[in-house]
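Quick one, tokens below. Sequence please?
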């Protein structure tokens, strides 16, 4: 706060003091004028007048007035980081960061703790994953699994809300594990004064940075693991990176050199899990040569746990065709080679035809042979025979007995639908609308294949099925009439080159050679254009060099739709055994892409709790009935198993999920891991009658050390930003004594007025006497009386 100079003397006394000062000034000027002149004696005049002015100023009783924090009325918190990263020793230090911090906090070695306690109600805390009160900072063990700086500050703000909270003195390296909480609104916090603990980083360390897992329907490399490698003081040294499964069996090992300091090196593994569902792996990086004299700063950042999910099949696909054709044969062969896919066929072998029209008496519409037997009106007698449908590979004799499903319960059993050479009139209006809901609400996939009665030729324009396709059908018949159908060469479009499921070779040259060897196709349905938001995966090019969309995909609601406009893909498989292998693999990858995100009736998701530094996970279980409507009044039990655990034996825990008040059919539970581990959760949902609605499975990893040691260099940038946004400033240890002395004069919630007489200040008298003595000495040295 700024101090103000005020005068407490009365008016007459101030006039007398001013008059006396003026008289002394005149006498001094007169004396110097008589004894040598003012030009020669002006330094003495200035010194004498300055000394007299100071004495007259004291006679006016001036006072410094201002405000300061009322002693003991304001709370001030001291926060000390107790996480594992404080145990690191920097290259330019002889002791660990924690030891350096203990020395700075020791009241027997510094004056600032006592100075701060004289003016504030000081509260002492340590923090890691949680905030905890401490009496002595010397008891900190620096073993916390996280640095929950953001949530700690919010906890402090809530704890002292409504009380005079003056500020926070923060000792940390700034590497918070909940940086998202520091990026929010900090206006409610008091000034934060960070003290950066740590130097330029450790002398020697190897670390696994960000690890990403990419899963796709690409058969040769369904799972790709990419990891970033960083190093301190060991650039160029040989490094061994090992990938092992849950039981420790070696999957793959790679050798490379450590990247230069400040740069990141990459390592990639391509893994094909042996089983279905969840698979767990451990990724570990070590220096190949390490001695006792050159150990790493910490081994905690050398290991990462990984979980992959290949899905919980089998996924059921319904194939509906307007006539027997070659496509079903090759599709079925391709699906039979994938244990996670099952395809059921519904094939029409005879169309719906009108019945023979019996005519008897005038006005009689029924069969005269059955005259007198029941209602023979036109409304009661069918005028058409039903189409003849063949069911293939059904689960039982009842499935699809009535033809294409007419209810949600019957249709939603499948995960995807293939429509092949079948006109739109085959589906009733209710079935077409239901099929659109199957994609948008249930999350299923629909693929339409080319043929004589597909797309615009099948009159799908302006129908619920045509509306959800990724291509425009209106005007397509005119475009088809203007262009010859073939021969057509199949080519990947730009988006197709980026999609692993659309490729069959691991290299670009190999893929180009494969495409060049494919046979030409003769049948294709022309479309007017591709809809906005859809992706063209492949095109078909005619002899004139003109291209048309061949394979187009898009998201539609919660599901996916695809249009394969070529109607004779089977020609590909007839060329050679190698071509047939490629074609079957292409079918499997396309179908895998269609069903990869289709949910089951019971789904389980495991999501980290935002901003929580304890690695807490929120488990959400959604239960739906056969009509895909939310099911309430369910009992959901979740069994959690630690599959790969560090330091503790694997264990199993059972939780009961609680119904959510914000969403029907949703049950939730929160799980907080106690150690680094990979977890598998199995959920079982029981309805109100005690029957099982379904099961679901999910997996995740908890690796707090990976986040805690993500950076080994103090994060000064985030601490600077924290101080700036709260009105504080970053301090060094050497500045703490001066800061503690000046802090009471800074703005605080509870202030009190202060005043100090200027004439009580010793330096005023010392300065006045010094000026008068200086004037006397100047006169003597210049021979003036």
């Amino acid at each position: 706060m700024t101090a103000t100079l005020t005068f407490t003397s009365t008016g007459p006394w101030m006039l007398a003091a001013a008059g006396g000062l003026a008289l002394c000034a005149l006498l001094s000027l007169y004396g110097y004028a008589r004894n040598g002149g003012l030009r020669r004696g002006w330094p003495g005049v200035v010194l004498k007048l300055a000394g007299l002015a100071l004495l007259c100023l004291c006679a006016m009783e001036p006072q410094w007035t201002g405000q300061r924090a009322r002693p003991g009325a304001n709370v001030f918190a001291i926060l000390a980081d107790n996480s594992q990263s404080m145990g690191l020793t920097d290259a330019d230090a002889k002791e660990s960061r924690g030891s350096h911090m203990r020395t700075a906090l020791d009241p027997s070695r510094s004056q600032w703790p006592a100075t701060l306690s004289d003016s504030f109600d000081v509260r002492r805390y340590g923090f890691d994953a949680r905030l905890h009160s401490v009496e002595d900072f010397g008891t900190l063990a620096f073993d916390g699994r996280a640095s929950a700086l953001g949530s700690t500050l919010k906890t402090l703000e809530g704890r002292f809300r409504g009380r005079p909270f003056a500020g926070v003195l923060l000792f940390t390296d700034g590497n918070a594990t909940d940086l998202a909480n520091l990026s929010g609104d900090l206006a409610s916090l008091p000034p934060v004064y960070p003290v950066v603990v740590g130097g330029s980083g450790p002398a020697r360390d190897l670390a696994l940075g960000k690890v990403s897992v990419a899963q796709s329907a690409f058969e040769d490399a369904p799972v790709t693991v990419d990891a970033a490698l960083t190093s301190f003081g060991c650039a160029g040294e040989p490094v061994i990176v090992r990938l092992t499964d849950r039981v420790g069996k070696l999957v793959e090992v790679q050798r490379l050199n450590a990247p230069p300091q400040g740069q990141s090196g990459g390592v990639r593994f391509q893994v094909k899990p042996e089983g279905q569902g969840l698979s767990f792996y451990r990724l570990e990086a070590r220096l190949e040569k390490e001695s006792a004299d050159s150990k790493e700063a910490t081994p905690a950042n050398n290991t990462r746990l990984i979980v992959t999910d290949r899905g919980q099949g089998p996924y059921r696909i319904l194939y509906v065709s307007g006539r027997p054709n070659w496509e079903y044969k090759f599709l079925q062969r391709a699906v039979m080679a994938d244990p996670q896919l099952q395809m059921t066929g519904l094939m029409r072998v005879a169309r719906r035809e009108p019945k023979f029209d019996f005519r008897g008496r005038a006005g009689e519409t029924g069969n005269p042979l059955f005259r007198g037997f029941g209602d023979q009106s036109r409304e009661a007698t069918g005028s058409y025979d039903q189409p003849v449908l063949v069911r293939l590979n059904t689960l039982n004799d009842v499935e699809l007995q009535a033809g294409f499903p007419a209810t949600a319960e019957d249709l939603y059993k499948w995960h995807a639908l293939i429509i092949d050479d079948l006109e739109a009139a085959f589906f009733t209006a209710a079935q077409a609308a239901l099929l659109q809901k199957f994609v948008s609400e249930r999350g299923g996939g629909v693929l339409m294949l080319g043929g004589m009665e597909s797309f615009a030729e099948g009159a799908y324009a302006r129908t619920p099925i045509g509306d959800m396709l990724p291509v425009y059908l209106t005007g397509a018949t005119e475009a088809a009439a203007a262009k010859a159908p073939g021969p057509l060469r199949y080519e990947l479009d730009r988006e197709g080159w980026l999609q692993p499921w659309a490729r069959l070779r691991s290299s670009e040259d190999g893929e180009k050679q494969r495409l060049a060897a494919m046979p030409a196709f003769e049948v294709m349905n022309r479309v007017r254009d591709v809809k906005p938001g859809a992706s063209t995966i492949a095109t078909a090019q005619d002899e004139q060099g003109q291209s048309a969309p061949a394979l187009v995909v898009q998201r539609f609601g919660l599901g996916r739709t695809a249009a394969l406009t070529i109607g004779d893909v089977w020609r590909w498989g007839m060329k050679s055994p190698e071509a047939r292998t490629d074609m079957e693999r292409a079918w499997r990858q396309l179908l895998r892409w269609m069903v990869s995100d289709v949910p089951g009736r019971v789904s389980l998701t495991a999501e980290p709790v935002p901003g929580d530094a304890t690695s807490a996970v929120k488990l959400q279980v959604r239960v739906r009935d056969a009509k895909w409507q939310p099911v309430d009044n369910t009992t959901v039990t979740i069994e959690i198993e630690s599959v790969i655990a560090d330091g503790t034996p694997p264990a199993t825990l059972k939780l009961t999920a609680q119904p959510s008040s914000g969403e029907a059919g949703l049950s939730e539970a929160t799980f907080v891991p106690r150690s680094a581990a990979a977890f598998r959760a199995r959920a079982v949902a029981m309805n109100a009658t005690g029957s099982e609605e379904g099961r679901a499975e999910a997996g995740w990893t908890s690796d707090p050390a990976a986040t805690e040691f993500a950076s080994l260099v103090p994060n000064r940038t985030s601490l600077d930003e924290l101080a700036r946004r709260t009105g504080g400033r970053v301090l060094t240890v050497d500045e703490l004594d001066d800061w503690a002395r000046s802090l009471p004069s800074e703005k605080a919630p509870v202030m009190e007025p202060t005043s100090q007489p200027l004439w009580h200040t010793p330096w005023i008298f010392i300065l006045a006497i010094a000026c008068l003595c200086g004037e006397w000495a100047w006169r003597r040295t210049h021979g003036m009386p």
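Residues 175 and 672 are 22 Å apart (CA to CA). The first strand starts at residue 4 and ends at 7.
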